[in-house]
Design goal:
This protein has 296 residues and is α/β, with parallel strands linked by helices. It has seven helices and ten strands.
Length: 296
């Protein structure tokens, strides 16, 4: 296939938040688009990891927006040490900016969210959720560590209680990329993330909700939401998934698909598995059907 025959093109873009922070990403634009998908990534995940999955959606005529949160990836400043960004800035400032950009650029197309992990946790902080056709989530839950399997719980404790403070002490931010963990993160981002994970109800805990984070739109969404989760997810397991979604209300249906790896002939799916290329002929068509249902 030569470049003229490709079903979509990839364009780099950037847009500026109200506080002056520049966000960067890419758009996958099919020739005859039927809807726009704002893809909200998981925390500190290299955005290119999702590219194969979004290419599949673009081939099915969805414009897909893949971008980096402030302080991460291509949206990181040159000096993370002096960066004062917070974790909740993702939902309060970044996600609304991306939606505004997409609404202005593609005003006549249905608008959808596809969210992974924190990308789905924080959309209720957004102040511009009008005209949303629906949201598809994968692995959107609380991150309460005591509900995680022992082995992963120990890894999380090491990450948050030893690696993170030492990294901040020596370099002033979470210096994780060079160790192969994830993208680097500003210190306030990872510290707020840690504080939420220590509470069963995450940012809905009375210590945070309505105080350090606003109450937002979590109790009055106006669009349908479908969440996929898998029983072998160390983070978004069944307990943490239920913990999160008990706090969410919409005047449209909120539905779930529980994925059991053995039902699909798989040994595991996990927290990131849906987006792996190996899932194309296993799960992606099922996900596409849910997305298609929100565009009609």
């Amino acid at each position: 296939m030569n470049h003229l025959d490709k079903p979509f093109e990839i364009q780099k873009f950037q847009t500026t938040c109200e506080d002056g922070v520049i966000l960067k990403g890419v758009l996958l634009i099919p020739k005859i688009p039927k809807a726009v998908v704002q893809f909200n990534c998981g925390t500190a995940t290299k955005k290119e990891f999702y590219l194969q999955f979004l290419s599949f959606l673009a081939e099915k005529n969805y414009i897909c927006c893949l971008w980096d949160y402030r302080g991460s990836g291509e949206s990181a400043p040159t000096n993370l040490k002096d960066c004062d960004f917070t974790y909740s800035d993702y939902g309060l400032k970044d996600m609304p900016t991306i939606k505004k950009y997409l609404n202005q650029r593609f005003p006549n197309l249905p608008f959808l969210f596809f969210n992974h992990s924190t990308g789905g946790q924080q959309i209720g902080f957004m102040n511009n959720l009008e005209n949303v056709n629906g949201a598809i989530n994968f692995a959107v839950s609380t991150g309460y560590m005591p509900n995680m399997p022992l082995g992963y719980r120990l890894q999380s404790m090491y990450f948050f209680h030893l690696f993170t403070p030492l990294s901040i002490l020596f370099v002033g931010y979470l210096n994780a990329k060079k160790f192969g963990y994830m993208e680097d993160l500003p210190k306030n981002v990872v510290n707020e993330w840690k504080s939420w994970c220590l509470k069963k109800d995450y940012f809905f805990d009375k210590k945070f909700y309505g105080k350090s984070v606003p109450k937002g739109c979590f109790k009055n969404f106006n669009f349908p939401i479908h969440t996929f989760y898998t029983v072998d997810d160390t983070i978004s397991n069944e307990k943490n998934t239920k913990n999160y979604w008990q706090h969410i209300q919409s005047n449209k249906p909120i539905t779930f698909t529980k994925l059991i790896p053995s039902d699909y002939g798989l040994k595991s799916i996990g927290h990131f598995g849906l987006f792996k290329k190996s899932m194309k002929n296993v799960l992606w068509e099922s996900v596409l059907k849910k997305l298609d249902a929100f565009t009609v």
